[in-house]
Specification:
2 copies of one chain form a homodimer.
Chain A lengths: L10 E5 L11 H11 L9 E5 H7 L3 E3 L7 H10 L3 H9 L1 E8 L2 E6 L4 E3 L13 E3 L5 H16 L5 E7 L8 E8 L5 E2 L15 E2 L1 H13 L7 E5 L24
Parallel strand pairs in A: 2-8
Antiparallel strand pairs in A: 1-12, 2-12, 3-7, 4-5, 5-6, 8-9, 10-11
Helix pairs in contact in A: 3-4
Chain lengths: 256, 256
């Protein structure tokens, strides 16, 4: 069972500005350079959270909209709701299943299994509307690669989380959640644990990877140009976690 | 429009251990004593996040299960799924509407409008199973009262957030979200803002109050006995925010 801290500790989230990135860049080299220029050092116990967009850009998951020929379905949908048909086309192409498509809102299940708006296809913070960014092909693998690269370079194995801003049912607004994880369990597991009164906890999995992604949402924002932060002081459960662990299986989801 | 930071800053979350609380306690006095004993001072720009349970306890929202006579419906449901019928009774009594009731999982819309499991009724971290804690009757008002009390005492008006752990569709695990807010907007509003490339952001409301609640989830956990934390370094938008702003109106919710 993952380790649970019995003592609360201060948590710090340190922004890591990184500058622009292009597909030929090594993201590990970019992170290293950013750490150096901001006089930051990775420490044992740190967690690195990266907004997915910088990872997608480094991996070439950028599509020039001028090269996209929208399908008739994408054109109809976009026309009815004043959207860019090429972006709608990409969103539909990245979808495994359409969950809802109503009032101009397209919620899909992506190829990866994420349920989100427009399959995570986004035009902001790219190049002013000429290109769209897709989600990383496999953000767990991206996180593992970055973790491995940092370990090789700094001799320190820290968890890496890749985040995106998703909407959710019932509640307004977006929050950053984890779509790629390496080097830690995505949960804090309270199963079988007893509280200070000896009462055994029933509801028992805390999605800490999502809460850590939310910290990056707070610290990085969308207009600062800061795509990453270092979280220090959170006692995580080591393990071979995967962001896929956060996907509720259809059989257990009362809302499918 | 709320102010958006153009520069990312370090965020700190400092746990505030507080010890047990009983209905005759003043929560503001308890917070003051905790600050003093941990040599902490509230600063301008700080945000105080409290787990709802300590607020509920201070407000007497605790029910002795021995006094509860479960309804036939609660008894049937509890029996079929090996639950405590008195807790099920309270959960049903606190519900305005049953959203889903299947496989032993009861999702309701509470009197306040929250959609969550068991109407937020919880037996952990109370007294070992003899009593249940209900959500505060009006957590926005609770937050406003605490904010006012702290202002009077320390001459400093800081935002107060009250959180609870909620599940959500599609994703596994619980995260802490805001159920009461005073002194800040619950959103960071990007509407009409342009990114560094001049592209106007479409998806535009970040639910920062939920992300801040999640920080308390990370820092406080469920077994440390720490019911609060101070968040320092987050540039919030001042305003008369309400956690109710986070409730998606039925007409805008594709999942009702």
């Amino acid at each position: 069972m993952p380790h649970i801290p019995e003592k609360a500790a201060e948590l710090r989230a340190i922004p890591l500005p990184m500058g622009a990135i292009v597909p030929s860049d090594s993201i590990v080299e970019k992170i290293s350079a950013a750490l150096k220029s901001h006089r930051l050092r990775l420490l044992v116990g740190d967690i690195l959270v990266l907004k997915h967009k910088i990872v997608s850009k480094a991996e070439g998951r950028v599509v020039a909209l001028g090269d996209v020929k929208a399908s008739p379905a994408a054109r109809r949908w976009a026309k009815a709701h004043d959207l860019d048909p090429r972006v709608s086309h990409l969103a539909l192409a990245e979808a495994r299943r359409i969950v809802r498509q109503r009032n101009g809102v397209l919620i899909t299940e992506t190829r990866h299994g994420w349920i989100c708006a427009n399959s995570g296809v986004d035009v902001s913070n790219v190049d002013g509307g000429k290109s769209a960014v897709l989600l990383p092909a496999d953000a767990d693998r991206s996180a593992a690669n970055i973790r491995r690269g940092l370990k090789k370079k700094f001799r320190i194995g820290i968890p890496v989380i890749i985040s995106d801003s998703f909407g959710r049912p019932w509640r307004e607004g977006l929050t950053d959640v984890a779509i790629g994880v390496a080097g830690m369990s995505v949960f804090r597991d309270y199963r079988g644990r007893r509280d200070g009164f000896g009462y055994s906890l029933r509801v028992s999995l805390e999605a800490v990877a999502d809460e850590l992604a939310g910290v990056a949402g707070l610290v990085c924002g969308k207009l600062t140009g800061v795509p990453a932060c270092i979280i220090r002081g959170f006692i995580f459960a080591e393990g071979r976690g995967s962001a896929k662990d956060l996907i509720r299986p259809a059989a257990r989801d009362l809302f499918r």
